[in-house]
Amino acid sequence: MRESGKGTLNGIEKCNDERVDIHCHCLPAVDDGPTTMQEAVMLCQGLVDDGLTTVIATPHQLGRFTDCNESEQIRESVELLNEELEKNEISLTVMPGGDVRVDERICQLLESDKILTLGDGGRYILLELPHQVFIDIEPLLVELNDMGVQAIISHPERHLLLIKQSQVILKWINLSASLQITAGSLLGEFGKLSQKAAWRLLIAGQVSIVATDSHGLDSRRPCMKAAYEEISNKLGEKTAQLVCVENPLRVLKSQDIVQLTPSELVVR
To answer: What is the pTM of this model?
Structure first.
């Protein structure tokens, strides 16, 4: 049964200065993020400049990255990156995680420690849907719930087949799934369709988290500050605080995610 979603905006506490990004491709030479350690360090400095203090590294797992990027490899890469950040006096903490492509073996692979939960905390898993086809993941969500793991669906606004399935999205949310949209989508960086879908999901109270999904500084660079400002201007600062600050921190700490309540949104 979903415990997250019972809280409301009026019930959240003021966060400390910790700012968490739960979806970022910052590890060097593991996927389509930075190709070198130098590039990874530069991206991490960019994340700090964007106001972030902790980042969950989420390299792609499964899909075309099957049989690589397994949990232990990612943990080792995270440790090396943190050492390099300390040498360069960059005030960012990197935690292990994965951007896990939907696969019928996910629960089995979690049990065998081949794929990672977010922050290695065992509570939340970031799921990436295939872009080319629509898949109803209800059976997987039920199986994950039985394991005590909750799914966070990455960038649904960028899945043009999924955003047409509003009833399916609601069903997934009722099965304890949460939605994470990309900061850049709100700013139009992935096109007008994704931008419109991102705001529609947010205004409907269906989005729990905004993340960078950053891959580098040349493209898909961090833009959380700009997204926070846009959300504050359009929906109020309480909403921006919840989806950009409070809920990402709750994921890192394996705490319940607080659900947006549409009636509490201040649409301007």
So the answer is: 0.92
Distance CA 141, CA 176 (A): 8
Structure tokens, 96? 């292990």
Q: What digits encode the pLDDT tens for the residues 119-142?
A: 999 999 999 999 889 999 999 999
* Predicted pLDDT at 13: 43
Question: Is residue 261 very low, low, confident or very high in pLDDT (cuts 50, 70, 90)?
Answer: confident
Superfamily of domain 9-264: Metal-dependent hydrolases (3.20.20.140)
Please give the DSSP secondary-structure letter assigned to residue 164.
G
Asked if pLDDT for residue 40 goes beyond 70, the answer is yes
CA–CA dist 52, 75 (Å, integer): 20
Contact 141, 172 (CB under 8 A): yes
Give CA–CA dist 179/153, Å, rounded: 5
Classify residue 107 as exposed, middle or buried by CB count within 10 Å of its CB (0-12, 13-18, 19+).
middle
Name 93's bridge partners: 54
